[in-house]
């Protein structure tokens, strides 16, 4: 079973964003919007961690953290939009294992979750099915579209720049089709501030260096002379979505 995280936050956007991101990272996630719902959940369930917003509609987050800590050693990461040193110190001294100020990066929160689990003697266990959701496979490569992770046939994670990722997604969503440079620029929504002559040629070259066994004789991204490029690989989706966009 994947490890379960309880998110307590009254902002629906935050709950949806964090649940989606953490589920894609292999966790099981339960979200509630107030302290009463959190208490009811904790009365019958034992998550591995709690993500707690300090500003709840029915109870002060610090008070809820004190109640939880009085009967449990569950790790707690506090969230707040206040961001003052006093709140941070009080939260950490009273109950929290870590503290983040809104707005924050979900990627940073994930890193902190893993760090807290390590400190508290727990091992993060990815749910393989969760990590495959919203992923595609091509030529023995795997691209996780939510985490923006490109994994090689031998399991190595390859870093992509933002524009490389957007261009690769464009190729994946239009396989076996000849696309001109102008069309690739339009579909990939490449950052206008970074557009210059031969932008697509440069990005294709960078992708080939990362994807191809022999970039000088590409098999995945092929050139159609005078026309553009074609993504010459079968794309297999790892979920039931109609499109990875």
Could you explain how this protein is built, in words?
- The chain is 38% helix and 20% strand.
- It contains nine helices and 13 strands.
- The strands form three sheets. It has a five-stranded parallel β-sheet with strand order 2-1-3-4-5, with helices on both faces.
- Strand 7 (141-144) and strand 8 (149-151) form a beta hairpin.
- The longest helix is centred in the middle third of the chain and has 14 residues, at 106-119.
Name a few traits of the molecule.
single chain; 245 residues; alpha/beta; Rossmann fold; Arc Repressor Mutant, subunit A; 2 domains; 5-stranded parallel β-sheet; 5-stranded antiparallel β-sheet; 9 helices; 38% helix; elongated; disordered C terminus
- Mass-distribution shape: elongated
The side-by-side strand order for the widest beta sheet comes to: 2-1-3-4-5
Helix count, per DSSP?
A: 9
Q: Give me the CATH fold name of the largest domain.
A: Rossmann fold
What is the chain-wise order of helices and strands? Answer: EHEHEHEHEHHEEEEHEHHEEE
**Helices and strands: which structural class?**
alpha/beta
């Amino acid at each position: 079973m994947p490890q379960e995280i309880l998110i307590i936050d009254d902002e629906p956007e935050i709950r949806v964003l964090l649940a989606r991101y953490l589920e894609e990272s292999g966790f099981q996630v339960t979200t509630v919007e107030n302290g009463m719902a959190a208490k009811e959940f904790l009365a019958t369930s034992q998550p591995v961690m709690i993500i707690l917003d300090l500003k709840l509609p029915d109870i002060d987050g610090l008070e809820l953290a004190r109640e939880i800590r009085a009967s449990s050693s569950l790790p707690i990461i506090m969230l707040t939009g206040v961001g003052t040193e006093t709140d941070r110190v009080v939260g950490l001294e009273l109950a929290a294992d870590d503290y983040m100020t809104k707005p924050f990066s979900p990627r940073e929160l994930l890193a902190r979750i893993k760090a807290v689990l390590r400190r508290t003697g727990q091992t993060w266990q990815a749910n393989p099915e969760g990590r495959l959701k919203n992923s595609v496979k091509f030529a023995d490569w795997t691209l996780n579209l939510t985490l923006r992770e490109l994994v090689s046939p031998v399991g190595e994670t390859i870093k992509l720049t933002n524009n490389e990722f957007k261009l690769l997604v464009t190729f994946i969503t239009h396989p076996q089709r000849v696309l001109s440079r102008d069309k690739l620029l339009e579909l990939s929504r490449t950052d206008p501030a970074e557009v210059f002559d031969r932008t697509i040629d440069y990005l294709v070259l960078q992708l080939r260096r990362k994807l191809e066994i022999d970039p000088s004789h590409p098999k995945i991204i092929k050139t159609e002379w005078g026309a553009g490029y074609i993504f010459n690989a079968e794309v297999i989706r790892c979920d039931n979505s109609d499109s990875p966009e």
